[in-house]
Amino acid sequence: MKKTCKKIVVVCLLLVGILNNPFHTYASNHKETTEPGNLYALSAVLMDGTSGRVLYGKNAEEPRAMASTTKIMTCILILEQCNLEETAKTSAYAASMPKVHLGAIEGEEFFVKDLLYSLMLESHNDAAVILAEHLGGSVSDFAAKMNEKAKEIGCEDTWFITPNGLDAQEEVQGEIKKHHTTATDLGRIMRYCISQSPKKEAFLQITRTPSYSFQDVSGKRSFSCNNHNAFLSMMEGALSGKTGFTSEAGYCYIGALERDGKTLIVALLGCGWPNNKSYKWQDTRKLMEHGLEHYSVHALSEARLPQIPSAIPVEKGQSEILGEGAKVSTVRMETEDMQMLLGAGDEVKTIYRGKTFLEAPVRKGEKIGEIQYQVNGETWKTEDVVAGNAVKEIDYSWCLEQTMNRWAKGGI
Prior knowledge:
Blueprint: H1 2-20, E1 24-26, E2 43-48, E3 54-58, H2 71-81, E4 87-89, H3 92-95, E5 109-111, H4 112-121, H5 125-136, H6 139-153, E6 169-172, E7 175-178, H7 183-196, H8 200-208, E8 211-215, E9 222-226, E10 238-246, E11 250-259, E12 262-269, H9 279-294, E13 295-299, E14 311-315, E15 326-332, E16 339-343, E17 346-354, E18 358-359, E19 367-375, E20 378-387, H10 396-408
Parallel strand pairs: 14-18
Antiparallel strand pairs: 1-17, 2-3, 2-12, 4-5, 6-7, 8-9, 10-11, 11-12, 13-16, 14-15, 15-20, 17-19, 19-20
């Protein structure tokens, strides 16, 4: 009997501990989330393509040259800001671009749409410059648009100088800046291209096309392009990707995969130099498989809500009865739910941060606090808590009215 009582007490204590624990741990399976193992890349990121959360990073914030992975930014800018049926003329500068190139001749014209396939399938450097000059007027002005878009996307350490990713540097306000990004920023750009841009479908269509043929506007010359992104046939669910190489950057890659309701993005910088061209494919597969095995989709709404005060006292506020403290009710403003990949050991908790008292006047709908949804201490979503009613400030007329009411009821 005593043993049974002890068991009951233990179970009760465990239940109390669980109910009072603000942390919620979500696991994709019963295994602990492990590191993906050794990678060839000097910098790498595995990103949740839905939320943008970095699931794994290796030197993820270290700035590095990114070679032709640059072209995903060039492509999305052209898609968003140009008519694909427009024609673009080849300048002498564009025609001078080194291999890999289309071989465009000065004065030759092409349809913008055709140049985008040249850009993304064969990674032609001259096609990038023709497009950049067509939209920006010059390469430098187009690079300014690239940097503006990078900032808009949320890139924290990216600087574009060329539209094709050739190694370059320039002086900006007395500072020497190189053409560079970070693995995290490169992942952010790809996430924008495949899921946030209004032209995401066109981007996916171009980058997934196996081969493409076209002519210059005059019809005098014909060209054919083949997609060199081996990842498209390497893993089920492969969405998009772009390779790159320069002597400074080494082999680089940015790729995306969608499977089992999960969207994964892998960014690799400095992933080997000749003769190690296959390293990027090995690292990409390893990181993608790690994401598929160790993470599952969860909604942040699964987290238990924190305790929110039902009402908050208001100093110097009018109340229905003289002498009683004024209060405002609290109302939670629910927002759209957020999906996120979570693994074993990831901790999700909700925290209420709000005022303990207010001072009149208080407007109905005025923000008085917020609920924060945190994953491993980082806030990913917030919901406002607002005043459910208005409270006016105590003034002479209100005091007189309350006094007269009391007198009429014989209370004075």
